[in-house]
Structures are given as structure tokens and as C-alpha cells.
Write a sequence for this structure.
């Protein structure tokens, strides 16, 4: 029984790791990483190492979720990665024009951003 519980907890932790670091934002360029990370992610809690932003409106994302529980849709993304030798929360941005984003859906709306595969 203890082994089953431990296995179940490991499975849950793995699922959580897939979801961390993936958010949606209406508009963003790679030059805006410092400002967006400060406002949307760090909020005085220290400097997070990496965050990926899906650049799309909520309506556009929800459109991919119609009549499905999971969707794979193409959106631009911006990766923000903390510069290791910088003082404070300084980030380098990398824009990808097209990326496949796996979405978890319920009732025609996105409920979770699962993963992203960068295509360009």
C-alpha cells in the first residue's frame, strides 16, 4: 500500500512539473521579459529562472478547445530566461513565431496549459 501511495504522489508531482512555467499573455515581445516577469511572475518573491508565455488572447486559446478535452494548437511563444551573471531579476527573451501548445480543456475553455513544442 505504501508503494502505491508513493507511486501516486510521484505521478502527481510529474504532472505539476509539466504545467509550471507556462502562461498566457495577450501581447508581448522578447524585449519585455524584464517588465512582464516583474509584474506577472516574480511579484517580490525572488527571481524565477524561466517562464514561457503563450502570446494569444483568451478567446483564441478557447477557440482551440471547442468540443475536445485536449487540444494541440499553434501559437507564438516568448521564453524568458534569467541571466545568470546579472544582479537582480534580469531576463533574456527568445521569441518563437510558431509553437505547438498542448491544452487541457473543459466545457469549451482552456483549464490548463500542459506543454509547448517550439517549431520556429
Amino acid at each position: 500500500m505504501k508503494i502505491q501511495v508513493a507511486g501516486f504522489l510521484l505521478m502527481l508531482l510529474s504532472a505539476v512539473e509539466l504545467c509550471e512555467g507556462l502562461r498566457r499573455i495577450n501581447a508581448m515581445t522578447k524585449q519585455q521579459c524584464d517588465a512582464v516577469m516583474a509584474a506577472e511572475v516574480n511579484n517580490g518573491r525572488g527571481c524565477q529562472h524561466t517562464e514561457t508565455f503563450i502570446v494569444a488572447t483568451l478567446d483564441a486559446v478557447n477557440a482551440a478547445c471547442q468540443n475536445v478535452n485536449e487540444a494541440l494548437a499553434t501559437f507564438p511563444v516568448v521564453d524568458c530566461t534569467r541571466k545568470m551573471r546579472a544582479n537582480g531579476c534580469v531576463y533574456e527573451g527568445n521569441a518563437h513565431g510558431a509553437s505547438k501548445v498542448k491544452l487541457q480543456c473543459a466545457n469549451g475553455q482552456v483549464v490548463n496549459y500542459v506543454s509547448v513544442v517550439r517549431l520556429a
User: Anything to note?
Assistant: Residues 2-19 form the longest helix (18 residues). The helical segments are 2-19, 33-42, 58-63.
